[in-house]
Specification:
- The structure holds two protein chains of two kinds.
- Chain A has eight helices and seven strands, in the order αβαβαβαβαβαβααβ.
- By secondary structure, chain A is of the alpha/beta class.
- In chain A, helix 3 links the parallel strand 2 and strand 3.
- A six-stranded parallel sheet of chain B has the order 2-1-3-4-5-6, sandwiched between helices.
- The radius of gyration of chain B is 17 Å and the shape is globular.
- By secondary structure, chain B is α/β, with parallel strands linked by helices.
- Classes of the chains: A alpha/beta, B alpha/beta.
- At the A-B interface, helix 5 and helix 6 of A face helix 3 and helix 4 of B.
Chain lengths: ~270, ~210
């Protein structure tokens, strides 16, 4: 029964992250929470890091209720001192990080004429500078251990997105540059740095905002004929953080249901 | 445009070699070119200054970012001094682009990272990548105003480096760059927007955008 053998082996495959500390930023909900749960399900001790302490607590409790190991940490990743404090707390509670998933991000859409400098700067600060600050924080841990994995979350907006996203798209394109530059810098000390680039994903945050009409278009533009859901990203994120992907670095994976090869109307 | 004089503006370092070469080429194309020097006027004041110049009548806007390369430990202070000001300038140039009128062409000069050689050039790699994102998203935002935005990316390696690394077998020249800028600012390029064009003799053939 070859079919049954395959199904069984998929279910009983050895957990890939036992004994590892995995930090997932922005994991108090949505995509981040899904990625955090996926790592925890494969044995990782997960640091649920979020700007919202209550959300972080809730997501961490959901993981522990499911039998996993997780602890909640609050930080504004755009602020160096806040990041430093959170990572010190993570080391103290769970141990030195092995994997960092930079998922935290915000959007503040505005047409060019209406966009304020604060709206520009905040989006750049969280999405790009925040990613940089968190990466920087784990380098000493990775260097001491001789290996480590970073997975950044970019956005398919870097290919084409809706109007009114110059702050977000510029920041996410910068994340791609950061991914490549860090892959070059950290490769020699055994660190893989990659990015996943999702299309719009149905989360509590995006469901209402994007609206029924645009979701329908998203679905129609995907060769798979469905919209992306948070769990769709967790598979790519865990794979890139695993030993199976040990020879993959500096890459950007579009996890978009094939939309990047299909109709990409702004 | 018959009967009116085409006007262009080059924003960057007033004394920059590339800025002057671009201004010279556009002038030769019959465009009346002004230069705006970032040392004379802080970026935050560019949108107002361009409005005062009757920006809506500009047909060509060329922006040469500074691409600060600051050595030192890559900490938060380094980010705030080496990276942040360059990114903040992108906002101001976007605001300027938002004031342009139908038919205008915006050309942003990109920069190819020296991948594989200068592994510590993290800042310029981030800026180079960000500017492609800015070019694409800005192109989307101003398209319905009839404004085009493209990025032209020279490769300093190909301008000065070993010829064997360049498929075309010679170093690039200023004229190679300014010729593409001139084309993108001309009516012949009226259906090209949101593109990043590498002008590097093929040096970048081993890399993809995103």
């Amino acid at each position: 029964m070859p079919g049954m053998t395959m199904a069984t082996s998929a279910r009983t495959a050895a957990p890939r992250f036992t004994g590892q500390v995995v930090v997932v930023t922005g994991s108090g909900g949505g995509i981040g929470a899904s990625i955090a749960s996926a790592f925890a399900a494969e044995g990782a001790a997960v640091a649920v890091l979020d700007v919202n302490a209550d959300n972080a607590e809730l997501a961490a409790r959901q993981i522990t209720a499911a039998g996993g190991t997780a602890a909640a940490f609050a930080a504004d990743i755009a602020v160096g001192a806040s990041v430093r404090g959170a990572f010190d707390a993570i080391r103290g509670t769970l141990g030195s990080p092995h994997v960092l998933v930079n998922n935290a991000g915000i959007t503040i859409p505005a047409e060019i004429a209406d966009m304020t400098f604060d709206q520009w700067q905040r989006v750049i600060a969280v999405n790009l500078k925040g990613t940089f600050l968190c990466c920087r924080e784990v380098v000493p841990d990775f260097r001491a251990r001789g290996w480590g994995k970073i997975v950044n979350v970019a956005s398919m907006n870097i290919l084409a997105g809706p109007r009114g996203r110059i702050n977000y798209t510029t920041a996410k394109a910068g994340v791609v540059g950061l991914t490549r530059a860090l892959a070059l810098q950290l490769g020699p000390i055994g660190v893989n740095v990659n990015a996943i680039s999702p299309s719009a994903i149905v989360t509590p945050m995006t469901k209402e905002r994007i609206g029924e009409e645009r979701w329908a278009r998203q679905r129609d533009q995907s060769p798979l004929l469905r919209c992306g859901e948070p769990d769709d990203l967790a598979g790519a994120a865990t794979f890139l953080a695993s030993e199976q992907a040990r020879y993959v670095t500096g890459q950007v994976w579009h996890v978009c249901g094939g939309r990047s090869i299909a109709g990409l109307m702004p | 445009m018959t009967g009116t004089t085409a006007r262009g503006l080059v924003i960057g370092d007033g004394a920059g070699t590339l800025e002057r070469a671009i201004a010279g080429r556009l002038t030769a194309d019959g465009i009346v070119v002004s230069q705006l020097d970032r040392r004379d006027l802080p970026p935050r004041q560019w949108p107002a200054a361009v409005r005062d110049l009757d920006g809506a009548a500009l047909t060509a806007l060329v922006y040469v970012p500074s691409y600060l390369a600051v050595a030192g430990e890559q900490d938060e202070q380094w980010w705030d001094t080496a990276i942040e000001p360059g990114l903040a300038e992108f906002f101001d140039i976007a605001k300027v682009a938002g004031t342009l009128g139908r038919g205008a062409s915006v050309v942003i000069i990109g920069r190819a990272p020296l991948i594989g050689r200068h592994q510590t050039e993290l800042g310029s790699v981030v800026a180079e990548s960000s500017i492609i994102g800015l070019g694409r998203s800005l192109a989307i935002d101003v398209a319905r105003d009839g404004v085009r935005v493209n990025v032209v990316t020279p490769n300093s390696d190909a301008m000065t480096g070993d010829v064997p690394d360049v498929p075309l077998g010679r170093q690039g020249t200023m004229a190679d760059i300014t010729g593409v800028v001139s084309f993108l600012c001309s009516p012949a390029a009226s259906y090209i927007t949101g593109q990043c064009i590498y002008v590097d003799g093929g040096r970048s053939l081993n890399r993809h955008l995103f």
